[in-house]
Every structure is written in structure tokens, then in C-alpha cells.
């Protein structure tokens, strides 16, 4: 079974589970609130459909890990739903914080209903994550509290990473070594929680859980570095709206931090202030010239290698195991 | 022992517990983030001290209920901390949503550090609530999952109430019957969770838990109605800054909804648009004249009576029981 076949089997079950959880808010008095959540999840409103739901990578990682431990993935669906809700809670709040008007090709929640409602939608998604976890009780009574602790510590790391990301915006003198603790919190923490929980619920022993956790951590770092790569050299960053390029949003991504460390032409231009749409292609080329593109690709490949090494140590079983190797590969080759 | 003596015994232990939980964020790299939380909790920054911490009524209710069931209150401190964090998470987000610049006599978190950081601070407080609950594990392993379910359902009700509150702002034709579901979610849900959890951890049987839960529910409603009373006829509403009066913020509080239902002079003025500072005293008098003041006081007293009746049924023990009766009384007589 290829990754795609797995995807086609798992995703419908996951979507049902997510919808079942969100239905807790489906009441006549608060129907518009419920609809804000179903809109964000990609199920309703203009542009609803597979593109609007996002890739559901995190729950997929969790379910595949459980399966690769030789266990049934179906009973872990509430945990998979929980990590997807955590991810989406952070997206809804993140979009307000970054003032991003678009998400997955549609208007963001705050752009549609205002910031006050969007804060509340994010809060509700966060609560649904916790309510989903409680549905693990019947089957995983022994593991549940540990799973909750992993999720809550992960979320605390998310807020730490988010704090660093926001405070970096106005900070000068940052170097590449400031990058890793930020993305470890912002991105890798949730990825590693997915594989850790997947392995635990799959019945893996402690050392196997640990290598799966490391696999998720490195996959998360590779994923974020590749995101940073696409934020400058991806098609839409180079040719799309200026807001698609990290060069114009001022984000301190890995290539930008690398460029700043070189203290060359790029760094000189950066400190002069906001970069206009016209300048983007040339400045991206300048970054390439100064070595940032190669450095970013190398960093991503190094993280992917570390992920694959960890995964090998975990000795994942059967077709789910192969699918995990495929996933690691694909996340570093995606175009968007 | 009077309520005050109890207060002086419980509060220092509670503050230690809260500080112990917030210390999870005390790291050199994210120190300013940690300090945003300690500022909001009332422990640091300008104006830190007892007034800045707030009254800690919710955890106090929880601890007193446990004690009134004849059990030790000390082991339930993590649960008391959790409900206080839930309350504070909602305050931090609420202040952004309402654009309130002052809280407990000081600048709000968003006013100090911007909305993006304030969203993140609220999120962190919410996570700390869940991490605190996990600390109940050793002593209350049997009750823990039920406590978590109560908290999570309460939080979902909070977001529902918050949604209604925000959507009422632009809705006309609202009546008093729209008021109760909104405040049930916004305020009473957390109060009833406090007494419910306090009774459960105090070892009360199901029916006693239920009457304690009802006690908290009615106390919460009385508390909110009295808040609405003070928002129009309280000293600072009548004589303070115009933002202290619910008449100028446009909030659909109970007296306002009552006034709108009368369709008299008050209602006529209300629909014409924002009320200026100068108009506040006369319009408050007009509301009194139309019966809103008496109606609000009667509603509050009815809720307090229902609370006291429930509390009597619970047959609370000893001095903690007396303190609960005192608390019910005082919450409806406070001046701020």
C-alpha cells in the first residue's frame, strides 16, 4: 500500500472523527459560531473542500506511527483529532497575530468575522482538542494521562516558540542559533508529540517511543526549514502576491538569518526597512548568491536524514512503515 | 473562623500554588513572556499586589466546598489553581475582544504588550490550567478524568457564552430571556464547576455534588447580575470614567435589556446611538424610574436565595460551611 492509498483510507475516518468532535458546538442558539469552526476546518463556506482542509499531516503521522507499531490505528482517532485541533487552534490565533488575510486559499477567520470572534474560535478548537483526548478513556485508560501531559507540554512549548517568533521581529543581532529553539517550539514540538503518542498508543516500548519521538522532531524541523525555503524560492513567493514572500513580511526565517549573518549586500538592504514587491526576485537571487539557498537546502536535508535515521532505529512495520519513510521524503520535496 | 480568617489562610497557599505552576515558563530565553503572565496574575510590574491579583473567588469557592464536605482542602490546590487560570485566560482574551484598557486598576496585557502577545499569554494561562489539573494525579487518580471533563465542558460553555455576548452587541430585538443562556455560559458555568469539583474532591456523594453544583450556578448568576447592577449604579459607573459605565460601552446587561423591553424613554435614547459621558447619570436615573433597578436587585436576590437554598440542602460542615454562606451574602453586597 502506498502513502496515497493509506491517505485515502485514513483521511475519511479522520474527517468523520473531527466532525463528530466539532458537532459538540452544533446548537441552534450558537449556530453561527459552529459555522465559523466548520469554515476554518474546511468543511463549509466558500471554497470548502480538500484544499481548504489542509494536509492533515500531523494526525496522519500519529495514525501511521500506531499502525507501524503493529497496532490498529482506528481506536487512536480521538488522539489524531486532538493534534489536528491543536494545530488549527494555533493557526487561527497565528493568523490574527501575523495579520494574515489568507489561509489555504481562503479568507482567514479573523478576516471574515473579526478578531474578537477569531480569538474565541481558536479557544474553542483548543478545548475540542482536550475533549477529544478524553474519548481515549475507554480504550487507553492507562496511557491517557501521559498523552495529556505530552499534549499540554507541547502546547506550552508552542506558546514559547510563538513568543520567540514574535519578539524576533523587532530584534536585531539575531543569528542562526536563535532559529532552532524558536522552530523547535513552534513546529517540531507538535510533530514529535504526534509520533510519540502514536508509538505509545501503538504499544511500543519506551526506547522505541523515544526514537519515534525523535523522528517526529526532526521531521518537524525539516518541514519548517522547507517551509522557509518555499517562503523565498517557492513559486508563489517569487511570482505570487508579495505577501507570499517572507522577504516582504519581514519574517526572520532561516535563509534570512543566514543572509543577515553574512553581513553582505542582502543584510545591508534588509536593515534599511521594508522590502517592496519589485525588489523580491532580485533580493532572492542575492540571497542565493550569498549561499543562503544551498545552506537552507542542506539544513533541510540534514534534518530529513536525521529523521530517517531515527525512523530506521524504530524499525517500523509493514506498509505503514514504508508510508512513514515516503512521508519523510515527500515533506521535503513538496512544492507548497 | 470567619470568611476573612479563611481567606487569610487559603490565599497564601493558593498564591504559592499558582506561582509554582506559572514557574513552568520561567526560563531565561523567554523571560519577558513569563513576566507578562506574572504581571497579569498581579505579582509583578507597576501596581502589583492584592488589588492587582483580583479576588480569587473561584478557587476560594472550590477550596471552601472541599473543606465544607469535611475533607482537607490542601490537596485540591492544583484544582483551585486550574479554575483561577481558566478565569484569567478568559479575562486576558476578553480584554482584547472588548478593547478594555484597564483591569483591576492597571493596564491590560494587550494594552501593555500588544494584542498578538496578549493572545499568546491567554493561551499559556489556559494550558497552565490543564497542566495544574494533571498534578491531581497522585492523590485523585479516580476523580481526575471526571474533573477534566467538567473543566473542558465548562470552557466550551465559556466560548458559547462569549460568542453570544459578542453577537448581542449588534443585535436588536433582544429580551431578558436572551440574557440567561449568555451569562450561564460566560459566568455561571465556571462557578458551578468550582463547587462541583470541590464537592467531588471532598468525597461528597452524587446528590450532594449536584446541590453544590447548583449552589455554584446560582451564585455565579447572582454575581453576574450584581456586576451588571454595579455597571450602571455602582459608584465608579456613576462618577468614574465613562468606560466604567455599561451605558457607554453599549453592553447588553440585564438592566439595559429590561429597559429595552419597556420600550420607553430609555429604549428610545438607546437605539439612537452611543451614549455620552454627560448623559450617564440622567439615563441611569431614567432606568431606575422605569423599574430596571428594582428588577435587577430582585433578580440578584432571587438568585442568591436559590444559591442559599441549594447550599442548605448540601448541609455544609463546620466553619467552612459558614464561610460559604457568608461568601454567598458578600458577593451580592460588594461595592466593586
Protein architecture, described:
Two copies of one chain form a homodimer. Chain A contains 17 helices and two strands. Chain A has a two-stranded antiparallel ribbon with strand order 1-2. The longest helix of chain A has 28 residues. The mean pLDDT of chain A is 94. The interface between A and B is large, with 43 and 43 residues.
Count of discrete alpha- or pi-helical segments spanning 4 or more residues of chain A: 17
- Physical arrangement of strands within the biggest beta sheet of chain A: 1-2
Strand segment tally of chain A: 2
Helix content range of chain A: over 70%
User: Per the principal axes of the C-alpha atoms, what is the gross shape of chain A?
Assistant: globular
Give unreliable regions of chain A as ranges: none
CATH class of chain A: Mainly Alpha
Assembly of the depicted chains: homodimer
CATH topology-level fold name of chain A: Farnesyl Diphosphate Synthase
CATH architecture of chain A: Orthogonal Bundle
Specify the structural class of chain A: mainly alpha
Gist of the model:
Two copies of one chain form a homodimer. Helix content of chain A is 73%, strand content 1%.
Amino acid at each position: 500500500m502506498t502513502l496515497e492509498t493509506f491517505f485515502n483510507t485514513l483521511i475519511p475516518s479522520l474527517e468523520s472523527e473531527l466532525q463528530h468532535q466539532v458537532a459538540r458546538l452544533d446548537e441552534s442558539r450558537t449556530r453561527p459560531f459552529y459555522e465559523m469552526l466548520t469554515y476554518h476546518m474546511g468543511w463549509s463556506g466558500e471554497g470548502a473542500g480538500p484544499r481548504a482542509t489542509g494536509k492533515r499531516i500531523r494526525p496522519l503521522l500519529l495514525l501511521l506511527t500506531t499502525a507501524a507499531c503493529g497496532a490498529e490505528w482506528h481506536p487512536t482517532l480521538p488522539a489524531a483529532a486532538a493534534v489536528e485541533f491543536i494545530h488549527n487552534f494555533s493557526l487561527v490565533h497565528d493568523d490574527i497575530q501575523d495579520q494574515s488575510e489568507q489561509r489555504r486559499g481562503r479568507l482567514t477567520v479573523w478576516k471574515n468575522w473579526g478578531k474578537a470572534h477569531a480569538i474565541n474560535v481558536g479557544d474553542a478548537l483548543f478545548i475540542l482538542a482536550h475533549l477529544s483526548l478524553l474519548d481515549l478513556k475507554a480504550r487507553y485508560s492507562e496511557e491517557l494521562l501521559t498523552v495529556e501531559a505530552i499534549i499540554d507540554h507541547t502546547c506550552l512549548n508552542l506558546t514559547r516558540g510563538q513568543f520567540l517568533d514574535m519578539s524576533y521581529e523587532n530584534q536585531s543581532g539575531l543569528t542562526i542559533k536563535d532559529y532552532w529553539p524558536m522552530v523547535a517550539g513552534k513546529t517540531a514540538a507538535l510533530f514529535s508529540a504526534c509520533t510519540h503518542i502514536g508509538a505509545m498508543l501503538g504499544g511500543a516500548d519506551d526506547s522505541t517511543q523515544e526514537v519515534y519521538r525523535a523522528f517526529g522532531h526532526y521531521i518537524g524541523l525539516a518541514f519548517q526549514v522547507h517551509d522557509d525555503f518555499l517562503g523565498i524560492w517557492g513559486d508563489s513567493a517569487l511570482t505570487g502576491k508579495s505577501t507570499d514572500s517572507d522577504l516582504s513580511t519581514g519574517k526572520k526565517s532561516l535563509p534570512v538569518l543566514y543572509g543577515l549573518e553574512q553581513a553582505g549586500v542582502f543584510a545591508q538592504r534588509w536593515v534599511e526597512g521594508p522590502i517592496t514587491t519589485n525588489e523580491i526576485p532580485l533580493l532572492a537571487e542575492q540571497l542565493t548568491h550569498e549561499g543562503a539557498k544551498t545552506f537552507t537546502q542542506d539544513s533541510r536535508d540534514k534534518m530529513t536524514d536525521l529523521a530517517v535515521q531515527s525512523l530506521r532505529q524504530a524499525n517500523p512495520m509493514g506498509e505503514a512503515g514504508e508510508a512513514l519513510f515516503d512521508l519523510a521524503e515527500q515533506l521535503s520535496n513538496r512544492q507548497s
